[in-house]
Design goal:
CATH class of the largest domain: Alpha Beta
Structural class: alpha/beta
Radius of gyration: 20 Å
Order of helices and strands: EHEEHEHEEHHEEHHHHHH
Helix content: 40-55%
Number of strands: 8
CATH topology of the largest domain: Glutaredoxin
């Protein structure tokens, strides 16, 4: 493993709270204390910016740039558009500038061996590991998962992954975030042209979204469904309506049918498929 800069810890404090209950800032600093030896051994710079503890092996300047230009910018835009509830527990983000230390840390610190080359979010312990040499798109994708966790804990997988993948290719302008065409498009277009894509209602109702035989197409279908709602200016309304009233609609299909009315859902899907075929990604 290459030699990297020594650890630098910059603490961003947000003010005091009653001593009887640790503030989120205090929880973040406590988390950093627990991780300090491991981060120091890996030559990682750490910055505390509640609810995040962000550490990276590319030096203080790069970590600070990731924090402000990607993490905080995306979080602010996502909260403005979708999420009302703020995280109450720290989120540890580990950023690696190359594949080898990323995989080494995943295995050594968490016992994770079969990991994505891009990065992943460990929902059970609020930890994100990222190989940022592949770009920052996956960082935004996984941030969506971290933020939807306290806001809509019962969100179905298709919505959670669709929303995350929507913003893995995006623009961040004037506190607004918009998903753009990305690498998932060509396979989806081929499936539509070859009449091999299953109906949206089946994808939405699928209780095995991560089935290995169809997971890639599920991601693409969910992503471009949400992108279509974005382009129709209905995505924010759909998400919030579904989140706030999901007791009798665990999949979201009823709310989707309501928000696309008076158009029939069959016609909505025909229009969606036709729209997908007009998109281009180079």
């Amino acid at each position: 493993m290459r030699t990297l800069p020594a650890i630098v810890c910059a603490l961003v404090c947000l003010g005091a709270t009653p001593a009887s209950r640790p503030s989120l800032d205090e929880k973040c600093r406590s988390l950093l204390d627990k991780w300090r030896d491991r981060l120091d051994a890996a030559h990682m710079t750490a910055i505390v910016s509640p609810p995040f503890v962000v550490a990276g092996d590319g030096g203080a300047e790069r970590v600070n740039r990731y924090l402000h230009n990607t993490i905080l910018a995306a979080v602010d835009a996502l909260h403005r558009k979708f999420f009302d509830r703020q995280p109450t527990e720290p989120i540890l983000i580990l950023l690696f500038e190359s594949d080898e230390p990323y995989r080494h840390a995943a295995k050594k610190w968490f016992g994770d061996e079969d990991v994505s080359r891009y990065g992943y979010f460990r929902q059970r312990d609020n930890v994100m590991l990222m190989n940022v040499s592949t770009g920052t798109g996956t960082l935004v994708h996984e941030l969506v998962h971290a933020l939807i966790k306290p806001d809509f804990a019962d969100a179905p997988s298709w919505l959670n992954e669709g929303l995350g993948s929507l913003f893995e290719q995006c623009t961040l302008v004037d506190n607004d975030i918009r998903g753009l065409e990305n690498w998932r498009l060509p396979a989806l277009q081929r499936a539509i042209r070859q009449n091999k894509l299953r109906p949206l209602s089946e994808m939405i109702a699928d209780d095995d979204f991560y089935n290995a035989e169809r997971t890639g197409m599920n991601y693409a279908q969910a992503r471009y469904l949400l992108m279509y709602l974005q382009e129709k200016r209905k995505l924010r309304d759909f998400y919030r309506r579904f989140r706030d009233d999901h007791d009798d609609d665990s999949t979201g299909l009823k709310h989707l049918e309501q928000i696309t009315a008076p158009q029939s859902f069959e016609q909505f899907e025909k229009d969606w498929r036709a729209w997908v075929l007009t998109l281009r990604f180079n």
